[in-house]
Write the C-alpha cells for this entry.
Amino acid sequence: MSAPTGIRYQGELHLLQKEIMAKYFAEATAIAQGNGRKAAHLLIAGNPVELLRAFDVLPIYPEVNVLQLAVRKGSLPFIQKAEELGYATDNCAYVKADIGLFHAGYKTPFATIPKPDILVCNYVGCNVYLNWFEHLAELTGAPAMNIDIPFIRTADGEPTADDVIYVVKQLEELIVLLENVTGRSLDWSAFTKIVERSARTGELWAEIKAMTQSRPAPYDAYFDSVTMMAPLYTLRGTEEGLRFFEVAHREMAERVKAGTGPLPEERFRIVIEGPPPWPRLRVFRDMFTRWGAVAVASTYSTVGGLWEFGFRHDPAHPLESIARHMLSYNVCNRTFLQRYEQMERYVDEWHADAVVIHSVKSCRLFSAGQGDMREHFVRDRDVPTLLIESDLEDPRYFSEAQLRNRIDAFFEALEQRRITAGRGAPVPA
Amino acid sequence: MRYAAGVDVGSTQTKAVIVDEDQRIIARSLTDTGAYLVRAADRAFQSALDQAGLRRDEIGQVIGTGYGRFKVEFGDTQVTEIGCHAKGAWALIPATRTVIDIGGQDTKAIKVSDRGEVLDFAMNDKCAAGSGRFLTNSAEAVGLEVSEMGARSMDARQPVRLSTVCTIFVESDILSYLAQGKRVEDILAGVHSAIAARTVALVRRVGSESEITMTGGVSRNMGIVAALTEKLAMPVNVSPDSHFTGALGAAIFAMERVLAGPGAFAPEVLA
Amino acid sequence: MTLTLDPAFPSARYRDVIEDRDFPTVRADRERTGRAAIGCYPVYGPLELAHAAGLLPVGLFGGGNRIEIAHADSRFQSFICSVVKSTMELGFQRKLDPFDALMFESICDPARNLASIMSRNFPEQAVVYVHLPQNMTSPATADYLTAEYRRVLASLSAVTGKTVSDDDLRASLQAYNRMRAALRDLYAFRDERPQDLATGELYTLARLATLMDPLDVTPILHEALDAARARGGRMKDRIRVVLVGSFCEQPPLELIESIEESGCYMVDDDFLLGWRLFRRDVPTDGDPCRALAVAYLDDSVHLSTKHDLRAPRAKAIVDAVREHRADAAICLIAKFCEPGLFDYALYRKAFEAEAIPHLYLEFEEKMWLYEKIRTEVETFVESMLFR
C-alpha cells in the first residue's frame, strides 16, 4: 500500500545530506583509484574519528557501506556470497554483506570503497565487531588494532578510572600506528580544532534531538534521524559536517516555530528501539504513518554517540573526552538495563504514548532479551509496547503482511482505547 | 431490528457471522478460502445471508478481518483479527481476560479488558513452529487425520519429548520415535505438549489472567486443550463457536458502528 | 561392554551428578563448610579470585537437556542460543537458590545482555561482571586486567565480607594450578592411549571439576588417571579427531559418547575450556592478580571468545591437529552460537588449505535423539577409512 499523497519525507536537510554524502563517497572512490591518500576502516559504535581526521585519513565505515547497499535493495547477493564461503544464516548480515563486498572488489553502485590501509576495530560493546575485523584483517592483510573499550559494568553505571587510563593509552598507541601508516606526525593543534568542531556538532545535534519534545515533533526521530546520522560519523570534526548540522538545526527550529511536523496530523508519539529494516525502510515507515505515528526518540540514533544527556567532546582534554565518548556516551557500550533507563527518559521527557521495539535477527547486541524489555515497559511502567521482528540488512526476513498485521493491531487497540476513554463505549448486551 | 456482519478471511477458511442489535448470532457460515479471496468473502457472506433470510441492504455495516481483510470488498472497514478475536472471545465468554488462538499460520496471545478491548498481545508468526501447520504435518507423519489427534492422544501413557518445534524437522523426530516402537498416542501427546509449551511461553508475555479462553479451530483438539490446561495450571475455556470467534468479533464491531450512528468513530486511517 | 559403561571407573558414579540442576555437590559443600557459592557462566572467569574470597566457584551451563524452558522463552527470541535461555530458566525455577552470586564475562552479545537481565529478574544473586581484554598487543593491557581483577576481587569480598590477602590468593592459585595440572595429565593420557580413556569419562571428570572445590576434586582426578593407566585396552579401528566449537553451551554426554562410538577417538577438544584455560601453572610469586592477568594474556589456550590479532585464528586449530596427530577435525557448534559460527568460516578455509578433512555438526543442549548425528559421523569416518 503506497503512502498517502501529500506527505513529503524530503526536507532541505535530506537534499543536503544526499549532496555531502555523494561528495564523501567520491572522495572514497578517488582513494580507491589511487590518489595516495589513506583510508581507515572503523566502526560506528563510539569512534575516534577525530584522530583519523587529524591525519587526513578518510574514515570508512563498513556499517554505512552495507546499509547503503541494503537501502538500494542490493544487499542480498553480497550476503549470499559470504554464505557460500561458509558464513552461517545466523551470522550478522552486516558482516556477511561486507565480506561479500570485499570479494566483489569493494565495488558498489555508489562508490568504490578503498581497501583499508589500517583496520581500527573500536570494540565498543559489540562482540561481533571483533570477529568482523579479525576476518577483514586476514582477508586484506592490513595492519589492525583492537581498541578495547571496557564495558560499563559497575553499580554506578560509569567507567572506572582505570578504564579511562586504559583507553587513553590505546588511543596514544593508535596515534603511533597512524603515524607509521601515514608517514607524518600528529599535528596536535589541528587535532584540537577538529575536536572542537566535534564538540560544536554534538551541541547542535543535542539541540536538534531535544526539538522533538515539541508537539508536533518537527521531524521523525527514527526515520529522519538516520538521515542525519551518516554525516555525524563520516564528517564529524570537519567544517562540512558542522555546516550540515547548522543547516539541520535551522530547518528544524523553523519547523518548531511554525508547528509543522512530517505528517499532516500527529496522532501517536512513539519511541522506537532497534535498528531499522534498511532493505524496506520506506514500506516500514508507511506502516506507521498511516496511523499518524511519529517517532519522538529512538535508541538507534545513539549508536554512534549519545549527546542528548549532556556529553560534549572537550578540546582541552581531547583524548580523555574521546575515551569517555567511547566508554559511556553511546548506546552500545552501556548495559541493557541502562537502555531501559534511556528509553524511560524518552517516554517521560519527550512525552511518548507508546514504545515500539523492532527486533532484528542479525544484531544480538540490540535484540537479545528484548522480550524482557517489553515485559518491563508493559508491566512495570504501564507503557503500551509493541514488539516486531525483521532484519537490518537481509531482505529475506522482512515479512510485510505479518508486520502490517501486528502494527495495525497495536495502533487499532490504542485508537480504540482513546475512543473509549474519550466517549464511553456502547454497553454490551 | 438492525443487523451487522463480520467476515473473517483466513488462510484456509473464510467465515461469516451476522448478529442482531442484542449481539445474538443469527447466522454463521464457513467456506474454504481457496485461491480467490474476494470470491471466498462473498460466498461466505451470501451463505450467511441466506441462512438468516436477509438481503444485503438489510445489513447496517460489514467489517472484514483476517489476513484477507482488505479483500472484503463489500466491507465498510477492516479490523485486525487480534482485535476481533479479543472482542469475539469476550462476547462468547464475558469473563475472558486472556485469549489464546492457535491459527493455521500463527499463534496469538491477547490480554483483554472487561469490555473486550485489546490491552496487550503477543504473536508468534516468524515460522510455523507451534501452529496449526505443525499439527497437520505431525498428523501426516503418524498417519492420522488432524481431527483424530486429540482423542487418540488422551490415551498416552508416556509422552515423548520433541527436541524441536520446527515443523520441518519434527517429521524426522516422529519417524525416529516410531522406529523405536513408541506408541502413536505417546507421540501425539508429545506433539501437543511441544505446541502447548510454545504457546504458554507466548501467553506469559501478556500474562495468564483468568479466565483464559481458547479460540480458533485448533481449540477443538482436546489434547491441546488438556496440555495447555496442565502447563498453565488453569482452566481453559472453549466454546462451540470458537471457530467463528474472529467473524463474531468483527460483527460486533460492525454493530457498535451501527448503534453509534454515522460520524461517531475516529477518522479513517490515512490510506 | 563399551568403555563408557564401565561402572568401576571413577567417573561412572558422577554421571548423573554432573547434569543434576539441584546442584547436590554445591549443597553438600555448603553444609560442610558453610560457605556460599558463585555460579560462573561460561567461558572463562577468574575462579581463583572467587575461591580466595571464600566462595565456591561453580560452573553454570544452563539447563542441559533436563530443564524445560517455560518462562525464559518470553524474554529471549528464538534465534538466541539455548544456554542463554536455559540459564535464565534456572532462575525462574529457583534452581539458583544455592548461589549468592553469579559471574559473567564479555564473551558474546547475548551473554552480556543476559547478565543485565538476570540481575533485574533475580536480585537475590549479586551479579559480578568481568570485562576480559581484547587488545592483546598493548603494553597497557596487563595493567588494565590487573586493576580489573582487583576490582572484581573487591566485589567478591563484598559478597562474603571476607578481606582477601595476597597469601589467600596464592593459595587459591595453587589449588587451581593443581586441578588444571591433573586435567592436563588426563588429556595427555587420552591423546596417548585413547582406547583406555573414553571422552565420555574424561568429560564427566572435567565437568565434575566445575562443581567442586579444586582441593576436593583433584584427588578424584588422580584416582581416575591411575585407574586409566591400569587399563590395557586394545586400540580400535577409529579415526583420531580434534573437536572444536563446544566451548560454551555443552552437548549432552550421550552426544559425546555417540560421536566416539560412531568411530572416533577424540584426542583434543574444547569442552569446558574456560576451566582448563592455562597451559602451565600460574606463578604464585609476586602480585597474584598480576600473575593471573599475565597468564590470561600470554599463557592461555586458544579461545573463540579471545581475539588475539597476533596470529590467524585457525592456526591454533591446525597446530592442534598436527600436534595430536589427528586425522580430521570435527566442528561441533551450538545452534545460533555466533562466535562459533564466525570461527567456522575461517576454520573451514584453513582446513581446505591444509587438506585437513573436517566435519561440521550442529547441536543444542536440549537433544535426546542422536541418530542423525551418528549417521553423519559414521559416514564421515567411513569416507576416511576407505580413502
Observations:
- DSSP finds eight helices and ten strands in chain B.
- Chain B touches chain C at residues 122, 126, 129, 161, 163, 172-173, 176-177, 197-198, 200-202, 204-205, 231 (CB under 8 Å).
- Residues 266-271 of chain B have pLDDT under 50 and may be disordered.
- The beta strands of chain B are 3-9, 13-20, 25-32, 59-65, 77-78, 98-102, 107-112, 118-124, 212-215, 236-238.
